[in-house]
Amino acid sequence: MKQALEVVGFCRPRGEYTLVGAVELIRSAVEQSRDRGVPKLLINGHEMSGVPIPSLIDRFLMVEEWPHEAQGMVAVALVVHEEYIHPEKFGVAAATHFGLKLDVFSSETDAFTWISNLADPK
């Protein structure tokens, strides 16, 4: 019987954050996942507070740096409250354009299902 071990990193930040602070936290989590050889990262932001709903420009700028940190070696599932998800998933489209495999969800279960079904980005 063939066995496989899947490694998925979890990040569940809690507390008050600015938009810049939240973006930096995610950038750092992606960097640490890459450096530790963790190919899949699930970030659940449901316990974060104080972060305003990002504008389209904010969404573009936030996902512009994350692909650089991932270097094609980390996929990201981001869990946020429904009101933070753009109806057309603009941030997801921008991240994909920059080379980051990313999707956003309002449910950790859905995020885990998505990231678990991905092939490792490496």
Description:
- This protein has helices spanning about 20-35, 55-70, 90-95, 110-115; strands at about 10, 15, 40-45, 50, 75-80, 100-105.
- The chain is of the alpha/beta class.
- The protein has a single domain (about 10-115), classed as Transcription Regulator spoIIAA, CATH 3.30.750.
- β5 (about 75-80), α3 and β6 (about 100-105) form a beta-alpha-beta unit.
- The longest helix has 17 residues, at about 20-35.
- It is globular and about 35 Å long.
Keywords:
122 residues, alpha/beta, Transcription Regulator spoIIAA, 4-stranded parallel β-sheet, 6 strands
Task: Walk me through the topology.
Blueprint: E1 8-11, E2 15-16, H1 19-35, E3 40-44, E4 48-49, H2 56-70, E5 75-79, H3 90-97, E6 102-105, H4 108-116
Parallel strand pairs: 1-3, 2-4, 3-5, 5-6
Outline, from the CA principal axes?
Answer: globular
- Average of pLDDT: 93
Give the helix level as a range of percent. 40-55%
* Spatial gap, N to C terminus: 25 Å
Main sheet strand line-up: 1-3-5-6
Counted up, domains total 1
Class from secondary-structure proportions: alpha/beta
> What portion of the residues fall into strands of 2 or more residues?
15-25%
Report the oligomer. Answer: single chain
Number of helices: 4
Number of strands: 6
- CA radius of gyration: 14 Å
What name is given to the CATH topology?
Transcription Regulator spoIIAA
Uncertain regions spanning at least 5 consecutive residues: none
| CATH secondary-structure class | Alpha Beta
Let me know the largest β-sheet.
4 strands, parallel
